[in-house]
Amino acid sequence: MRFKFSIIALLLEVVFIILFGLFVEHDTGNTSLYPYFKDVHVMIFIGFGFLMTFLKKYGFTSVGINMLIAAFGLQWGTLMQGFLHRGEGGKIPLNIKSMINADFSTATALISFGAVLGKTNPVQMLLLTFLEITAFAVNEYLVTEIFQATDIGASMTIHAFGAYFGLAVTLILYRPGLKNKHANEESSYHSDIFAMIGTLFLWLFWPSFNSAIAAENDQTKTIINTYYSLAACAVITFALSSLLDQRGKFSMVLIQNATLAGGVAVGTCADLTIDPFVAMCIGSIAGIISVLGFRFLTPVLASKLKIQDTCGVHNLHGLPGILGGIASIVVTATQPETKKGIQLTAGKQASALGSTIGIALLGGALTGAILRLPIWGQVSDQNCFDDSAYWEVPEEEKLPEINSNNYDEHSRFEAIM
């Protein structure tokens, strides 16, 4: 770790600085998007980071490596998307919108991080981020420029892509030794509270995430649709969480994750011509499939398909992301939609969904094969889900001991009397 991680991180950062010097320039344009950027930035660094702190001995890694991935990935995302979308011979313009898109690109890697959480080392996560953002940028270019599909809230290009990329990686990195639940692969009362902080930040700011780069005349509609989709999803999640428990109790795992599925699912068609009740229906369906996924599908994926999905990203991002793509296919098939002078069709939306899933699975499998190489090192099964493998962890404070001498003397005195 000491030399391997440091050398790779420093080398890649030097390369980024050189590339920025050669190809990037300031674009002093409109700053009206800055409030949206701040909201998205909070989601990336606080929302995603704290959402993954549910493991009782893995909080340092969840928040810390989340920060590393985001800081590293937003630089590479700026370059990759800039190279693909810039004009011929022109430099990459840096403005608030490009910063938002850079944050979006890191979200894919953070979603995949959830799938492999506890089972990879920092070197592997740097490589995963580098390779995944490259694949993401290519797929995003295909979806927006070649297929000319719409995906304003990125249900497909970010959420579904990140989920299935991560699932493919964790499939290749399958650990037979973790087939039975690891002792540290569980939460504590306090770790679940910290994870709930992440959920609340994501839930509150999701309308900004979906509407950040929408056309100005569509932003209000996108915010409203996301707002009510999230609300409906939250109520449905609480209801099903109680219903599925024999004692009628709520599951913190479901509340932390499935309540967010409505924001994921409504993203693709949030700026299309849909009424708020339609958005609420999408959010409700997303809540249902997410809850059922956590309850019934995740154990099957682990036992039958050898997919060890630590955070359940398939249920929060994968299935709702597919739902969002299907919803956009239905909407564009039932009523004409035009965005930026381009006629949207169900065929374009279907092509975008198929491309996203295909590239994510292929890219994730190739990335997993690269990360599996012995050169990168592997954390042992015993040290999985434990911060102490890569962090200096302070010893927990011990409670003061009872003074047994005083107790004994008092008891002896009573006995004599």
UniProtKB/TrEMBL annotation:
Transmembrane segments annotated in the record for this chain: 6-24, 36-54, 60-79, 123-142, 154-173, 193-215, 227-244, 277-297
Lineage, top-rank taxon, reads: Eukaryota
Give the subcellular location: Membrane
> What InterPro entries is this protein classified in?
Ammonium/urea_transptr, NH4_transpt_AmtB-like_dom, RhesusRHD
Which residue intervals define the domain Ammonium transporter AmtB-like in the entry?
A: 14-390
Query: Where mainly located?
Result: membrane
| Gene Ontology CC, one term | plasma membrane
On subunit structure and binding partners, the annotation says:
Homodimer. Heterotrimer; a RHCE monomer interacts with a RHAG homodimer. Component of the ankyrin-1 complex in the erythrocyte, composed of ANK1, RHCE, RHAG, SLC4A1, EPB42, GYPA, GYPB and AQP1. Interacts with GYPB (via the N-terminal); this interaction bridges the (RHAG)2(RHCE) heterotrimer with the SLC4A1 Band 3 I dimer complexed with GYPA.
Q: What is this protein called?
A: Ammonium transporter Rh type A
Q: Which gene encodes it?
A: RHAG
